[in-house]
Design a protein that fits this description.
With 372 residues, this protein is an alpha+beta fold. 42% of the residues lie in helices and 11% in strands. It contains twelve helices and ten strands. The protein has helices spanning 36-44, 67-90, 98-124, 142-160, 165-176, 187-190, 198-205, 207-216, 223-231, 252-266, 278-287, 295-304; strands at 2-5, 14-15, 19-20, 26-28, 49-53, 313-316, 321-326, 336-341, 354-356, 365-369. Helix 2 packs antiparallel against helix 3, helix 3 packs across helix 5 and helix 9 (223-231) crosses helix 10 (252-266). The longest helix is centred in the first third of the chain and has 27 residues, at 98-124.
Length: 372
């Protein structure tokens, strides 16, 4: 099983991971042999990467949380964000009492709380849990899928940082709702395919304060969880927004979520940019430690993320192409690789040879390959 951009998927490939439509319904089940018409349907949903099975890897990549829980969480986030829109639409409607609005909001946030507990239970039930995949996302559902991914990433990092269960719950709620303020930003700005103007960027930055102001009126959401919505774009060097906070003056949970937020955004197709390979995203996070991100948290994050999950085709510095067969805790950038295509160099490895980059220190991964 390996993740490939949709343009590298061909008729005859076998789908290795179920694809859902924008309402969480199954569009194509894993095991389906792809046809031209299936690929067209996937592209129409603006899904740009899928998992396929091929002759290179029999590895089954399991999600950190069950697919049904992920879809349930996406649905809950979507409904909560829609309720936020309704609340603002109704705010000047005298026919709707404050009590009825408060009751509806409580119902949605209670659902979010239940989802958070279910996700936490799944993650802490697994030993040495690591992030080793990028979820299949559609452009239309990006904000909701992103919110769930950020929560999962944040929790895995939180486990690495040895947060207790109460702290993980606070973190998860904050992560699930960190972008709720984007509901109040014009969609033409959120989905703009090109570079934002200075005025548009000022507008989009308002999602932090708008989200926080809305959550302030929700007694179901704790203060630390609300602050995540406000501070997840602050940077430890003081050059973030909205308040230019620095270092430890930034809420601890917000510092965690900021790493998860950027990593998932970088590894996702967005209106204005193609997804970055996980290894490049990890390098970006590393390169911005102590400027954008908390250094100690970045070190913990590097132990929790696998940029080359088993099944990934990689080109080595020898120009051999191999498939990753195993990864090692705390050494994610140096996996075990089985050679499937010999390179032209004199020091190339024979096809079928398995090498560990932990032992072969003179060989590194150059990049991810999607076809050979």
């Amino acid at each position: 099983m390996r993740l490939v951009p949709i343009e590298f998927a061909n008729p005859g490939n076998t789908l290795a991971k179920t694809v859902f439509d924008n309402d969480g319904r199954i569009l194509l089940r894993d095991g389906v042999v792809l046809t031209d018409s299936y690929l067209i349907r996937i592209k129409r949903l603006q899904i740009y990467s899928i998992y396929i099975s091929d002759g290179y890897s029999e590895t089954i990549i399991e999600d950190v949380i069950k697919p049904e829980l992920r879809q349930h969480a996406i649905k809950a986030i979507k409904e909560t964000f829609y309720s936020f829109e309704k609340y603002n639409l109704y705010s000047n409607n005298t026919n709707l009492s404050k009590q009825s609005i408060a009751k509806e909001k409580h119902s949605y946030f209670e659902s979010i709380g239940n989802i958070a507990r279910d996700i936490i239970d799944e993650i802490i039930s697994k030993q040495n849990v690591m992030i080793n995949l990028v979820d299949i996302k559609s452009m239309d559902n990006y904000t909701y899928q992103h919110s769930v991914n950020v929560a999962v990433l944040s929790l895995v990092l939180g486990v690495q940082l040895q947060l207790n269960q109460s702290e993980l719950y606070t973190l998860c709620i904050g992560a699930l709702l960190h972008d709720i303020g984007k509901v109040l930003i014009p969609k033409d700005i959120i989905l703009k395919p090109g570079r934002l103007t200075d005025e548009e960027f000022i507008t989009i930055k308002e999602h932090t304060t708008k989200g926080y102001d809305f959550l302030k009126g929700c007694s179901d959401i704790s203060v630390p969880s609300r602050i995540v919505a406000l501070q997840h774009h602050e940077k430890v060097n003081g050059l973030g927004y909205p308040d230019n906070k620095k270092d430890k003056s930034i809420n601890r949970f917000a510092r965690i979520v900021s790493i998860a937020d950027v990593y998932d955004a970088l590894t996702s197709d967005r209106p204005y940019s193609k997804a970055m390979c996980p290894n490049d995203a990890v390098e970006y996070i590393f390169s911005h430690a102590n400027t954008q991100f908390d250094y100690e948290m970045v070190k913990a994050f590097s132990k929790a993320v696998v940029p080359y999950p088993p099944g990934t085709l990689v080109r080595l510095s020898t120009d051999d192409i191999g498939v990753v067969t195993n990864v090692f805790p705390n050494l994610a950038l140096r996996p075990q690789v089985k050679i499937v295509k010999k390179g032209p160099n004199v020091n190339a490895q024979e096809v079928g040879t398995t090498i560990s980059l932990v032992d072969q220190l003179d060989i590194v991964v150059k990049n991810i390959e999607f076809s050979i």
